[in-house]
Structure formats: C-alpha cells, structure tokens
C-alpha cells in the first residue's frame, strides 16, 4: 500500500507497520528526519513542511492511506495552565485545514491524530484513549499502553529508559539534545498498527466485493 506519513517524527505510529508498504514520510526537522531514515531505511523521507506537502501531493495517495499528526501543543489541555501564567496563544488551525481538505477532496483512507483539546472540537472527532482521530473509517477502540506519567514522571534518569522500553526505540546512538521529547511525541506503535490494520482490512473487504461483482 502507498502511504503518506505526515509529521513523521521518529516514526512512533509507523514502527509496527510492515516494510512491504511504499511509505513516504515528511518531517521538518532535519536531525529528526535523519533518525527516522536510519530507523526505516526503506521509506522515502522528505525534509520539509508536511502541511504544504500534503496540500500538493495528497492526490498521489488516493489508492492508499494518509496519516497526519499535526503539532498538538496549542490544542492540549496544558494551555489552561499556560494561560493562567500569562502565556496566551491561538489554537493552530492547521489541524482543521487538513481535516477539511481530506474530508472534502481525498478519495483514499485517512487518519488525522491529535490530543484531546482544551476546547470543544470544531469538527467532531472519534475518541480513543487520550487521543482524537478524524478519519473516514471507524477507528478501533485501543487504549494507550503508554501513559503520560511513564514518560514525563518524576523518576529522574529512568524516564528515557522507561520510555524506550515501552516504545521499542533505542536512541542511545543518536546525537539529539532532547531525546525524551522525541519519545514523548511518539504515537503509541500499537495504536499506529491497529489503525493501519483496520485500513488494510477495509481494503481487503473491498477487493473481495469487487471480485464478486466481476
């Protein structure tokens, strides 16, 4: 299957996908993109703006699947605390621009993932665990096996070790200033796998139906 993986990070959502797929990953940060490429050498990695790349290339993936995880900080409930401290910011509407684009024009399967927001969603999502999902298929109900406290808890130097064990990533050989943040930003690999498995299941069912018709 042809897959576009936007805002790829180091590939948390992609980790348990099979290598048989034709995957294009888009990541803005050059150092993070290099880690992704090293972890998934068979993927095509684009260093650039995932938002713009999606707009220009989404039609190339209409026989496949698009995953997007736009930046979540301006949507998360942490903004309550920041607001109280005088740090006020608008929610980033990139999220809803991408939802509207794919919902209106994209003919393939898509999933846009983000954290639960501090405001009522402008477009109703599906909810599973602590995440929102906007998709044109039913998202399987899969709770995170990884809790925020496991990665951001008060266990000192064990934080990265704990996160690495849960996510299955070993970043010890990479030179990056904030590895904990890289791990914290990962989508749980089990969630990524469950969602792609659902897409593949739908594709297989559609193929069977087409076979019966012809």
Which characteristics define this entry?
seven-stranded mixed beta sheet; 7 strands; 214 residues; alpha/beta; 39% helix; globular; 16% strand; single chain
Structure description:
With 214 residues, the chain is α/β, with parallel strands linked by helices. The protein has a 7-stranded mixed beta sheet with strand order 3-2-1-4-5-7-6, with helices on both faces. It has helices at residues 30-39, 50-57, 78-84, 94-105, 148-152, 158-167, 179-184, 189-213, and strands spanning 2-6, 22-27, 44-47, 65-68, 109-115, 126-128, 131-135. The relative contact order is 0.16. It contains 8 helices and 7 strands.
Distance between the termini: 23 Å
- Helix percent reads 25-40%
Give the topology string: H per helix, E per strand: EEHEHEHHEEEHHHH
Alpha-beta content class: alpha/beta
Largest sheet report? 7 strands, mixed
Enumerate the strands of the largest sheet in spatial order, edge to edge or round the barrel: 3-2-1-4-5-7-6
Number of DSSP strands? 7
From the alpha carbons, calculate the radius of gyration and give it in angstroms: 18 Å
Residue share in β-strands: 15-25%
How many helix segments? 8
């Amino acid at each position: 299957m042809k897959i576009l993986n936007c805002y790829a990070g180091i590939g948390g959502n992609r980790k348990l996908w099979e290598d048989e797929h034709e995957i294009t990953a888009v990541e803005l940060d050059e150092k993070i993109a290099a880690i992704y490429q090293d972890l998934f050498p068979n993927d095509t990695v684009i260093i650039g703006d995932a938002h713009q790349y999606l707009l220009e290339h989404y039609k190339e993936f209409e026989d496949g699947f698009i995953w997007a995880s736009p930046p979540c900080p301006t949507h998360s409930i942490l903004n309550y605390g920041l607001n109280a401290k005088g740090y006020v910011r608008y929610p980033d509407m990139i999220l809803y621009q991408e939802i509207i684009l794919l919902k209106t024009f994209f003919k393939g399967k898509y999933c846009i993932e983000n954290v639960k927001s501090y405001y009522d969603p402008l477009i109703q999502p599906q909810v599973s665990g602590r995440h929102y999902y906007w998709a044109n298929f039913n998202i399987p109900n899969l709770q995170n096996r990884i809790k925020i406290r496991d990665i951001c808890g008060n266990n000192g130097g064990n934080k990265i070790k704990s996160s690495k064990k849960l996510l299955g990533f070993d970043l010890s050989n990479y030179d990056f200033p904030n590895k904990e943040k890289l791990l914290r930003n990962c989508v749980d690999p089990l969630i990524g796998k469950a969602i792609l498995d659902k897409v593949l299941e739908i594709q297989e069912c559609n193929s069977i139906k087409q076979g019966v018709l012809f």
